[in-house]
Amino acid sequence: MPGVLDEKEMEMAERGALVTGASSGIGLAIARTLGEEGYALTVSARRPEKLEQAAAGLREEGFEVEAVPANMAEEDHVVAIFAAHRERYGRLDVLVNNAGVGIGAPMEEIQTKHLDMQLAVNLRALILGTREGLPMLREAGAEHGKALIVNTASIAGKGGQAWLSIYAATKAAVINFTQSTHREAGNAGIQCTALAPGFVETPMTEFVQGQIPPEEMIRPGDLGEAVRFLLRTSRNCHVPEIVFTRPGEGLDTP
Ligand SMILES: NC(=O)c1ccc[n+]([C@@H]2O[C@H](COP(=O)([O-])OP(=O)(O)OC[C@H]3O[C@@H](n4cnc5c(N)ncnc54)[C@H](OP(=O)(O)O)[C@@H]3O)[C@@H](O)[C@H]2O)c1
What we know:
Order of helices and strands: HEHEHEHEHEHEHE
Largest sheet: 7 strands, parallel
Distance between the termini: 59 Å
Strand content: 5-15%
Shape: globular
Radius of gyration: 18 Å
Helix content: 40-55%
Structural class: alpha/beta
Bound molecules: NADP nicotinamide-adenine-dinucleotide phosphate
Strand order of the largest sheet: 3-2-1-4-5-6-7
Mean pLDDT: 95
């Protein structure tokens, strides 16, 4: 009947976004921006309690939030986040592949389990998430020409790094994979951007906060603002990457 919505249409959000690694730091800040911009959110992270706390905070701010705990190192967990998102909202307009982990070590002391974990979470999961998200993103791209994939890389991905060699290699691969995604999906109304920040004040940089005062670090909200900018540019304007540095810092090193 015209004017009457069936059950599926009633459940369908106007715009949907999925953010991994959204229980703290950069992912949480980007989720907040997307909530402010009217997106129904799926947020994911590894530890359920911390994730639920973050999700509760976002709901208090008035946003619609589905929280899906997942270990990004497990393929079936990654697949499940996307299935839960589709089930709840039926559409995906913005995918933020943000979960990441950095474990420093001199090369001679690299532990295989730390190598595997960084490859799995920083790179493999981002590739799997892109695969899982693309069908819904293609639908959104066909509808309005401005779906987004935002991948959190790092300034460490812009140049090799002593001690953080694996982390830097995964982040360089993230930048490259983002470019490939753009080549494959750009003409389908999906824009792909890699974010490459230097030190941001989050739990991840606690190890260095003795040397660099936390208040002098990039703010997590700065990355949220960058995503807001990406939402507002025209469908004709592709931004392949955004590098964030602190004042006076080089372009390829944290
Ligand atoms: N902070 C910086 O200076 C900086 C600079 C450049 C790039 N980055 C990148 O920014 C992204 C976010 O980091 P952040 O600085 O915001 O750090 P953070 O506050 O520690 O956030 C990391 C997020 O990723 C999640 N995560 C980690 N391992 C996971 C796993 N195996 N499965 C599922 N979720 C997992 C964490 O959840 P749990 O806590 O539950 O594990 C958390 O939600 C990462 O990709 C990082 O490499 C950070």
